[in-house]
Design goal:
Blueprint (H helix, E strand, L loop, with lengths): L2 H31 L4 E2 L3 E6 L3 H4 L6 E11 L3 E8 H11 L9 H26 L3 E3 L3 E6 H12 L5 E11 L2 E11 L1 H10 L4
Antiparallel strand pairs: 1-7, 2-7, 3-4, 3-5, 3-6, 4-8, 7-8
Helix pairs in contact: 1-4
């Protein structure tokens, strides 16, 4: 296959992972909340790591970052990032009171959602590749995008310059949540994924 056909095929496969993962995540959230949640079709693409901060609104944009390590057959990490407005809207969906500032309960709730969303995508990838993939306990940070991105940059910046970007938008009532999920496998793991997806 020529490079363009490979790229198109890869994007189709990744969109399928995005669709399955988003569907699983929304189902899990809807069950947890006992509410109807609407979801937009996720946007999926492969991006350069250096472009992530631009997608998030710039290095100085304050965001909530939920970060998990990938383990077992795949190594790397996965990040679920929310702008502050989306984080507050998500908390208003989750908690029985209006949120004005992020307290310990709020941070715990956001970590749990990050865990659900990340696990949903990882499970979709695992199903399509037959790889055993586990995620670590989530860690959460509220900081400027540049600072949050420095964690995977230090860990994996030398071995992975590409990320799988999945933008997921979901809504419950007036609460609109725009989440950006970044899958950052190391180079060897990325090649393993592409091989098992039939791209290489």
């Amino acid at each position: 296959m020529g490079k363009e056909r490979i790229d198109n095929f890869l994007i189709d496969v990744l969109k399928e992972i995005g669709n399955i993962g988003s569907g699983n995540a929304i189902t899990a959230l809807a069950n947890m909340l006992s509410k109807k949640i609407n979801m937009s079709v996720p946007k999926v693409r492969i991006i350069d790591f250096k472009d992530i901060s631009t997608i998030l609104g710039g290095e100085e944009e304050v965001v909530v970052g939920i970060y998990l390590n990938l383990e077992k057959d795949i190594e790397g990490n996965i990040m679920f990032i929310l702008d502050m407005e989306s984080a507050v809207n998500l908390l208003n969906m989750l908690l029985p009171r209006q949120i004005e500032e992020l307290d310990e309960l709020s941070i715990s709730a956001l970590s749990e959602v990050g865990n659900i969303v990340a696990s949903s995508y990882v499970n979709a990838l695992s199903t399509l590749t037959d790889l055993k993939i586990a995620v670590s306990v989530p860690s959460l940070a509220i900081d400027m995008a540049g600072a949050i991105l420095s964690v995977p940059a230090i860990q994996f910046g030398l071995v992975s310059d590409k990320a799988l970007f999945i933008e997921t938008i979901f809504q419950e009532g007036d609460n609109l949540v725009k989440g950006s999920l970044f899958l950052l496998p190391d180079i060897e793991s990325f090649e393993k994924i592409l091989l098992l997806l039939g791209v290489l």
